[in-house]
TrEMBL record:
InterPro entries: AAA+_ATPase, AAA_lid_NorR, CheY-like_superfamily, Homeodomain-like_sf, HTH_Fis, P-loop_NTPase, Sig_transdc_resp-reg_receiver, Sigma_54_int. This is Sigma-54-dependent transcriptional regulator. Gene3D superfamilies: 1.10.8.60, 3.40.50.2300, Homeodomain-like (1.10.10.60), P-loop containing nucleotide triphosphate hydrolases (3.40.50.300). It holds the Pfam family Sigma54_activat. Residues 455-464 have a biased composition (Basic and acidic residues). CDD domains: AAA, REC.
Length: 464
C-alpha cells in the first residue's frame, strides 16, 4: 500500500450512490489517493472551483444535473484526467463523452482494473505537483525509502573524518553524492573532482601530486596537483578502479602518511584532504580481477556506500521528471508538463542509463513537444543486466538490437570510455563512433556525443 502523504492523488468523486462512493474511496486509499465525495451537481461544482484534483470521476446522472454538463463547464486547466461513469449507457452520452475532454467512459459495474489504472495515474500526477525541495539533499532528489536511507547515511558520515567509497552504475549520480558529502562536512576547502579513467597514465602522477619546475619536458613551472588544490576540502576520485596499478602504490602511501612528494621534488608536503572514491565496477570484483589493490580498497572504503540504480527506485521518477521540466520551463519561459500516461510509462521503464538517461529523455521530448502537454513513447524495457555484468536477452530480439544493447552495456561498464570499450569488444573505436551516430540518427540513443575517451557530463547536473 502506498504511504498517505502530501503526494497522494486528489480525486473528486461526484456520484449519488453511497455504496459506489464507499467502494471507490476504499480502493483509492490502497492506490495512494484521497477521495473528496460529492453527491450532487452543485456540491461537485463548488468543490472543483476551490481545489485542484488529479482525477475527476463523475456520474452522468446526478440528482440535480447532468454530469457531462459539469465536465463541460469545469476549469480543465486546473485539473487532471476526467472520467465519467454511468449505469445506463446510451449512444447520446457516449458521443458527448467522446467530444468532451473525457479520458474514460465507464459503465457500472466499473471494472476494478480500470479504476486502479485511473487512480495510479492520479497518484503519479500528484507526485509532479510536489515542491522540488521535497526529498532533496544537495543536487539529489528522491522521496523513496532507498533515497531517504541514502540521505541519512550521508548526514551521519559527512562530518566524520573517514574516507567514503561510492559504488553505483554509470549515471546514478556518484559525483552528486560526493558533492553532498562535501557540502555537509563543513570543510572550508574546495571540492575537486578527478576522473581517473580520463587522464593519460603518464600524466596522472603529475595531475594528482603536482610537479616541480623542470621535472620533465614541458614542466616550465611548478604545479600544484589535485591533492594540494583540494587542501582543506574534498578530493573526489571517480572511477578509481581505472587507475594504473603502479600509481595505486603511490596513492596508498600518500593516504597512509597524509603527505605527498611532487614529481621531481624531494620535500614532503602534508595535506588535509577528505578523499571520496567511486567506481561503476563492483569493487570486490575489481579486487578479485586485479584491477584494484585490496590494501588500497580497504584504505579507501572506510565507509562504503551503495547507490541504487533508478530502476530500483521508480517512485522517484515522477519527482525527477518534474524537477527537470521545472528547470526547462524556467529556462524557456514555458509551462509544460508530462501527461499522466507518460509519467506512468517513464516510471515503468528500466533506465539502464539511470538518472542521466532520464534527464536526456525528458529534455528531448520537452524540446520536440508541439504544445504544453508532453507525451512520450518509450521502447519496451531493455535486457536485464545481472550483478556479475552478464546480460540476459529476450527471445525474439533482432540481432541488431542485441548488438546495440551489448555495445551500450559495455560502454556503460567502461565508464563511457570508447577506446576501452572497443578493446573489450574486439573492435575499433571508429566502429563504436559510427554505431553511435547511426543510433542517434534513428532516434535509438538519447545521450549526446562526447569526446574520445571522456565520460559525458561529469557534474551529472541536477543529480539527483
Amino acid at each position: 500500500m502506498t504511504d498517505r502523504c502530501e503526494s497522494a492523488g486528489n480525486v473528486l468523486l461526484a456520484d449519488d450512490s453511497a455504496d459506489f462512493r464507499s467502494k471507490v474511496a476504499q480502493l483509492a486509499r490502497s492506490c495512494g489517493c484521497e477521495v473528496t465525495a460529492a453527491a450532487t451537481f452543485d456540491a461537485a461544482r463548488g468543490i472543483a472551483a476551490d481545489r485542484e484534483f488529479d482525477l475527476l470521476l463523475v456520474d452522468v446522472a446526478l440528482p440535480d444535473g447532468d454530469g457531462l454538463d459539469f465536465v463541460e463547464e469545469v476549469d480543465l486547466a486546473a485539473h487532471g484526467r476526467i472520467a465519467v461513469v454511468t449505469a445506463s449507457p446510451s449512444l447520446e452520452t457516449a458521443v458527448r463523452a467522446v467530444r468532451a475532454p473525457v479520458a474514460e467512459y465507464l459503465v457500472k459495474p466499473v471494472p476494478t482494473g480500470a479504476l486502479i489504472r485511473l487512480l495510479e495515474e492520479a497518484r503519479l500526477r500528484a507526485q509532479t505537483r510536489r515542491p522540488p525541495e521535497t526529498g532533496q539533499l544537495g543536487g539529489m532528489i528522491g522521496q523513496s525509502a532507498t533515497m531517504r536511507a541514502l540521505f541519512e547515511q550521508l548526514r551521519r558520515v559527512a562530518p566524520l573524518d573517514v574516507r567514503v567509497f561510492l559504488h553505483g552504475e554509470s549515471g546514478t549520480g556518484k559525483e552528486l553524492v560526493a558533492r553532498a558529502l562535501h557540502g555537509l562536512s563543513g570543510r572550508a576547502g574546495r571540492f575537486v573532482a578527478v576522473n581517473c579513467g580520463a587522464i593519460a597514465p603518464d600524466l596522472m602522477s603529475s595531475q594528482l601530486f603536482g610537479h616541480e619546475r623542470g621535472s620533465f619536458t614541458g614542466a616550465v613551472q611548478a604545479h600544484a596537483g589535485f591533492f594540494e588544490q583540494a587542501a582543506g576540502g574534498t578530493l573526489f576520485l571517480d572511477e578509481v578502479t581505472e587507475m594504473p596499478q603502479e600509481l595505486q602504490v603511490f596513492l596508498l602511501r600518500v593516504l597512509e602518511t597524509r603527505t605527498l612528494v611532487r614529481v621531481g621534488g624531494t620535500r614532503e608536503v602534508p595535506f588535509d584532504v577528505r578523499v571520496v572514491a567511486a567506481s561503476n565496477r563492483d569493487p570486490q570484483h575489481a579486487v578479485a580481477a586485479g584491477r584494484l589493490r585490496p590494501d588500497l580498497y580497504y584504505r579507501l572504503a572506510e565507509f562504503p556506500i551503495e547507490i541504487a540504480p533508478l530502476r530500483d527506485r521508480s517512485d522517484d521518477v515522477p519527482l525527477l521528471v518534474r524537477h527537470f521540466v521545472a528547470r526547462l520551463n524556467e529556462r524557456y519561459g514555458r509551462s509544460r508538463r508530462f501527461d499522466a500516461p507518460s509519467l506512468r510509462r517513464l516510471a515503468e521503464y528500466d533506465w539502464p542509463g539511470n538518472v542521466r538517461e532520464l534527464q536526456h529523455v525528458v529534455q528531448r521530448h520537452y524540446l520536440l513537444s508541439d504544445d504544453d502537454t508532453i507525451r512520450v513513447h518509450l521502447p519496451s524495457p531493455r535486457p536485464q543486466t545481472d550483478s556479475d555484468g552478464s546480460v540476459r536477452f529476450r527471445v525474439g530480439m533482432t540481432l541488431a538490437d542485441v548488438e546495440r544493447e551489448m555495445l551500450l552495456r559495455t560502454l556503460a561498464s567502461c565508464g563511457d570510455n570508447k577506446r576501452r570499450a572497443a578493446r573489450t569488444l574486439g573492435i575499433t573505436a571508429k566502429t563504436i563512433y559510427n554505431r553511435l551516430r547511426r543510433y542517434r540518427s534513428r532516434g535509438l540513443l538519447e545521450t549526446p556525443e562526447t569526446p574520445d575517451g571522456g565520460a559525458p557530463d561529469r557534474a551529472e547536473d541536477g543529480w539527483h
